[in-house]
Amino acid sequence: MALVVLPLLSTMSTAASFMPSGARTSQPIGHYEFCRAYPVDCRDKASNPGIVLLSRSLWDAMQDVNNSINAMIEPVTDQDLWGVEEKWSYPVNKGDCEDYVLLKQRMLEERGVPASSLFITVVRQKNGDGHAVLAIRTDRGDFVLDNLESKILPWNKTEYRYLKRQSERNAVQWVSIDDNRQ
């Protein structure tokens, strides 16, 4: 799949289509420990990040990855699977939200999506629970791949409260999200 990467300053969508990032913030402890176990997967992303052109082939790849991982992985808590409260890992057949995200991120990178366009994102659900989703930055805005939702949605069309995400330049750096939506 050949992808077109546009310069970050050249966007075709409105600013509301993109998650407004804020100041640098803390890396989730589970991600920190994941990066110690898988350092190659936590390398710098890009010195000059861009956004990918949302083509039919990219949309199909996003749909395929989201649907196949959601169907393949059985949801289970880290406590039930590993006996610990928080452990980020690549799932084999069971995992929790961040495990889905890690596998989706890896599979999209294997299909040619640049790492600088893929962000592990931490959100709060309507019930107050924490959750992780994968966001992909395209020329039409940021879209969310989620294990709780089969449809890929623009970030601002979900019911989540966005808290923080990976930086587009460095996988171990995280930035806050200024989510001012009602």
Structural description of this entry:
With 182 residues, this protein is α+β, with helices and mostly antiparallel strands. Helices cover 25% and strands 29% of the residues. The chain is built from 4 helices and 11 strands. Helix 2 runs antiparallel to helix 4. The radius of gyration is 15 Å and the shape is globular. The chain starts with a strand and ends in a 5-residue tail after the last strand. 35% of the residues are buried.
Fold blueprint:
Blueprint: E1 5-7, E2 21-25, H1 29-37, E3 50-52, H2 56-72, E4 74-75, H3 78-82, E5 94-95, H4 97-110, E6 118-124, E7 130-138, E8 141-146, E9 149-154, E10 161-166, E11 174-177
Parallel strand pairs: 4-5
Antiparallel strand pairs: 1-3, 2-11, 6-7, 6-10, 7-8, 8-9, 10-11
Summarize the structure.
The protein is an alpha+beta fold and 182 residues long. The protein is 25% helix and 29% strand.
Radius of gyration: 15 Å
Between the first and last Cα atoms, what is the distance in angstroms?
A: 38 Å
Strand content bin: 25-35%
Total count of helical runs of at least 4 residues? 4
Mean pLDDT: 90
In total, how many beta strands? 11
Main sheet properties: 7 strands, antiparallel
Amount of helix = 10-25%
What shape does the CA trace take?
globular
